[in-house]
Amino acid sequence: xxxxxxxxxxxxxxxxxxxxxxxxxxxxxxxxxxxxxxxxxxxxxxxxxxxxxxxxxxxxxxxxxxxxxxxxxxxxxxxxxxxxxxxxxxxxxxxxxxxxxxxxxxxxxxxxxxxx
Amino acid sequence: xxxxxxxxxxxxxxxxxxxxxxxxxxxxxxxxxxxxxxxxxxxxxxxxxxxxxxxxxxxxxxxxxxxxxxxxxxxxxxxxxxxxxxxxxxxxxxxxxxxxxxxxxxxxxxxxxxx
Lengths: 116, 115
Known about the structure:
The complex is a heterodimer of chains A (116) and B (115). Chain A is mainly β.
């Protein structure tokens, strides 16, 4: 079974703190993603990476950065946490089939971040 | 502008009956569609997918129908069970070159299956 593991289920941080959310996948997937989910807004893509050291901005990258130094690990960084970054953060990974088609993304269990 | 739309935020059905969740899309470049299920405080889990070259895909109680001319897909759950109560997300993937494809998500439909 594919496993995507996020380092924390729940986090509480103070405004202005630098926050690291870690994600590890064990299936050698090329693609990794960070989303946030808020009520009524669905899943919004923050950043994604299709290879080591490669990253692309998603729909809402402001206030976030990412790091992918190893294929299995994708980190989301909140440079200076703010209360409007209180949310559920979801990491996902997927691979590309031999024909170049996208495959389904596998998600971690989520991190509920509260910024106070 | 939402490229993938789930126009019903919620749906309530009786146990044993059929649940039909709908999804509309606007981008004709989408060629792969997926449905995910999400329980509260958990990550989404993949349910079923369909390629644009097909019009139907079935997996147990779950069937996805694709109508390309109408740019519409639907997920049928038969029979519905209380454990199916969750938020269902529709997602689509565009036909692009390279290996950096990403999914475009709908806002979700909350399904409640009543015993």
